[in-house]
Amino acid sequence: MPEAYDPNQVAKDAIAPTGAGGAMDLAMSEAETLEKTPGGPGGTGPQEKARSLWTDAWQQLRRNPVFIISSLLIVFLVLIAIWPSLIASGDPNACQLSQANKGSGPGHPFGTDQQGCDVYTRTVYGARASIAVGICATLGVAILGSLMGGLAGFFGGWWDGLLSRLADVFFAIPVVLGGLVFLSVVVSDTIWPVVGFMVLLGWPQISRIARGSVITAKQNDYVQAARALGASNSRMLLRHVAPNAVAPVIVVATIALGTYIALEATLSFLGVGLRPPTVSWGIDISNASQVIRNYPSQLLWPAGALSITVLAFIMLGDAVRDALDPKLR
Predict the structure, then answer these.
(1) Considering only Cβ atoms within 10 Å of each terminal Cβ, which end of the chain, N or C, has fewer?
(2) Measured distance CA(266)–CA(197) in Å, rounded
(3) 64-81+109-328: what CATH class?
(4) What's the DSSP call for residue 272?
(5) What is the pLDDT of residues 173-229, one digit of tens each?
(6) ABC transmembrane type-1 domain spans which residues (predicted)?
(7) Longest dimension (CA), the chain
(8) pTM above 0.85, yes or no
(9) CA dist., res. 261 & res. 129, Å (int)
(10) By the 8 A CB rule, do 274 and 268 touch?
């Protein structure tokens, strides 16, 4: 007959290893596990710290040739915008009518324009105003748009509806037409009216990006946990939501910087942007377009510099977007 089932004996067998050999085997198994554990006595060292989104993005950007080329080009352009005398020793407004419309030669590698001004010197000095307008406009748009969109996305309700409708009003204004009207009324020899106009019509785009990013970030578990622990709205917004919602804003702002440089040149070409004696690529392109059939080189150099600058910032924005978006890796 089969042996009777004893539940007490089964419990004893499960609790205590059978004999001294079983206890020794159990101890040796635990020691081997400890040795193989990273950070243990025989392990391979401490575990690698988890890398953040910014660390991963920087690692990818360092290996991206598009980012390296565009960054070096932008550094060079910013450098000559700050110190144009490094590569151009002349005065961009020093013109001699007797030297008008001359081809390239000694002292004038790019030739001269209709007023006898050195095209090379004006092309180098034109980077200062164009890049300054692009950077200042981008900073203003990013700050104002992020503030408006972040508040609308975080608080929601009537505040979200008000800011969204306000953004729709500015979205409905055509940029070029708005520039013709606004800048024809506000006349100044500085870059600030142009910068103010770009910020006025450019913030709704960043606002929508920031609003959607904040709405997505505030639904994460860590934000809800902070809210449950009694964190204030300002602490949650600045410490938890904003750092995790700023990446799309940086990408869009980087790409938009090149767009604002091109917009400044367009407005200056139409005669409502920057005005002489300010040296700008848009002004030089406008002047050269009048004699493009006879002297095309006068248009080629400022237009080429403008195109290279805009392309460099767009390439930089594309590289940053690929690095910050995990779905594109």
Answers:
(1) N
(2) 13
(3) mainly alpha
(4) S
(5) 888 888 888 888 887 778 999 999 999 999 998 999 999 888 888 888 878 888 888
(6) 127-317
(7) 127
(8) no
(9) 9
(10) yes
